[in-house]
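Q: Predict the bound structure with iron/sulfur cluster.
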Amino acid sequence: MERNLKALTLRQLSELGEKHYNGIQIYRWIWKRGEENIENFTDISKKLRKKLIDEGYFVGKIQEKFRIHSSDGSIKFVFEDGYESVYMPEDDRVTVCVSSQLGCALKCNFCATGLLGFKRNLKAWEIADQVLQISKKLNSKVTNVVFMGMGEPLLNFENVKQAIRIMTSHIGLNIGARHITISTSGIVPKIYELAEFDRRVKLAISLHSAIEEKRVLVMPIAKAYSLNDLKNSLIYYLQKQRRRITIEYIILKGFNDKDEDVKALKKFIQGLNCKINLIPYNRVDYFSWEVPSEEDVYQFYDKLKKELDVVITIRWSRGRDVYGACGQLGFEILNKAK
Ligand code: SAH
Ligand code: SF4
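A: Predicted complex:
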């Protein structure tokens, strides 16, 4: 039987107690207050506290291996067997980028996490605890969470959903669902499932090309789900959730930034309530893609701006100097293996 209280659901915690609301109290201690010592759960009876301790219950926490500070203020944390999270403070918000898996099976050919291959799914509490531990260590209230660290969140969907329940609960981390973003390479059947999810988080789709043959070249998973199937799932999602989605588009210089790419993208987003987030490619040594210059990025941005009638933003990645930027997570493990 699981003895780590963080691994138990609210219902399971309630079953441990004498009264139904003991579950709520314990949940609040471990997730909202971040208390790690059962003896300090002062609003539950001494008897129950003793019982829990005697039966071997404890408050688990993920162990930080080390952290690296970026010159731009973001901090990359490496936890346990190597999964990484990135803390990114901005003026009015604090975002934590979390990992959902150690490594990733999908092997997009611009991404360091893909090079690692799939190692394991993170448990729900390990995902939520990335936010809690970082918040505690830095004494900083986290306002936003993005599932853009290691792994494909929709391929560890049950744990990701459970982690989101902890994050959004008012007796948990208390982060608004609107401030949580799931980024996916486009696992079509799971997008239909996400449309039914009762926590209304935001969705970002890693598109990177709206031309089938090109997308397949950089994202092997695109062989399993065509652009047409992907688009249909997004239409369904938008009908259900009525929340604008984000199309993520890495600029791979000379590959997906041509006129034909603009045209294809224009066609793909027709009828989709979306905005476009351009991500200049971040260097991953193993791949030979060229990093676009600032001028290249603005040139492509201007081209899109002229043709497309949607909001377009540019994500100047944070933490590039500590290999904490998009696509660079996994570097620490890869480096160790050398
Ligand atoms: N697996 C999910 C979420 C993690 S990746 C997904 O693919 O969406 C988070 C984002 O970083 C994705 O948009 C991904 O395409 C992008 N990314 C991966 N490698 C990158 C790189 N080298 N440079 C810039 N962005 C990258
Ligand atoms: Fe996996 Fe996302 Fe990296 Fe692709 S970009 S290999 S889906 S983590």
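A: The chain has a mean pLDDT of 95.
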